[in-house]
Amino acid sequence: MPRVLRDPLFTAADSLVLTDRHIANLAAGTLAAVRVPAFLSGPTCESAMAELDRLPTTDYDPARVPTPILRFGPALNDYRTPDGALDADRYWPAAEAARAAWSRAGIRPDPIAVSLARLGSAWGAAVVPATIGGRPVFGGTLREINNGALIHYDDLNREMPALFDQQLVAQLAFNVWVRIPGNGGETTVWRRRWEPADEDHRDAYGFQPATVTRCQHVTLAPQAGDALLFNSANFHAVRPNQGHGQRRIAFSFFLGLTTTGQLTAWS
Ligand SMILES: O=C(O)CCC(=O)C(=O)O
């Protein structure tokens, strides 16, 4: 049997306090993930759940994301043209409509605002929206992933190069859950990034399991209220909920570390 060599730094940290060091290590690619238990309080999760029905939800583009994932708020890569640009005519009206619907829903406390403020105080400077031609993009989708998510990576520098006014050196995924299934729904992050040869193992927006065979990984099963931050250039996936009628609902956005040391957010 070949010896399994492990990277001792690629671990999942559990921490009540999120720090700038966590964010820096995730951006540098050494740390696998940081989970912050009870990032949102029980009442904040419950009041968000009570208001969710007021938000207009839609599926991702089924041609790109065949597993049903319900979401509120536009995700930039659903508005990607075949050459990696933004379909601005479709994106901006959707972004404005989502902003208006979010403010009409008036969810208080606002889980996105609370999350951005905590991330900003960990980093020591406010998180600002990423911009395109000076115009802030939408940040803060709500996603219901009950049937899992394929093994995939998210790296805007690769998917939509030079889209933002800001230049990104790292991209992190932030999720905070307001509902979690009793069984299933774990998130796995592999110590493995995309390579050109992986294109031979594409599976819709994701990649076949062989892509990550024998790669070191961490698997996390967050509870409602917990937040999870990881470097989204690492392959990651979500196990389907086990059992009927269980819901897995998170507020989520990406964080980008820029060449000027700023944290930007988008969805
Ligand atoms: O829901 C999760 O655990 C991760 C979702 C995901 O794929 C992402 O945030 O990029």
Question: Any overview of this molecule?
Answer:
The chain has helices spanning 20-28, 42-51, 88-105, 111-123, 156-159, and strands spanning 12-14, 33-36, 58-59, 70-72, 128-129, 131-132, 135-136, 141-144, 149-152, 168-179, 187-193, 202-203, 206-207, 217-220, 227-231, 234-238, 249-258, 263-266. The chain has 267 residues and is an alpha+beta fold. The protein has one domain (12-266): Jelly Rolls. Strands 1, 2, 3, 4, 5, 8, 10, 15, 17 and 18 form a 10-stranded mixed sheet that branches. A 4-stranded antiparallel sheet has the order 9-16-11-14, with no helix packed on it. β1, α1 and β2 form a beta-alpha-beta unit. Bound molecules: 2-oxoglutaric acid. 2-oxoglutaric acid binds next to β10, β16 and β17.
Task: Give the SSE map.
Blueprint: E1 12-14, H1 20-28, E2 33-36, H2 42-51, E3 58-59, E4 70-72, H3 88-105, H4 111-123, E5 128-129, E6 131-132, E7 135-136, E8 141-144, E9 149-152, H5 156-159, E10 168-179, E11 187-193, E12 202-203, E13 206-207, E14 217-220, E15 227-231, E16 234-238, E17 249-258, E18 263-266
Parallel strand pairs: 1-2, 5-18
Antiparallel strand pairs: 2-15, 3-4, 4-8, 6-7, 8-17, 9-16, 10-15, 10-17, 11-14, 11-16, 12-13, 17-18
The site of 2-oxoglutaric acid (AKG) has 11 residues, from strand 10, strand 16 and strand 17.
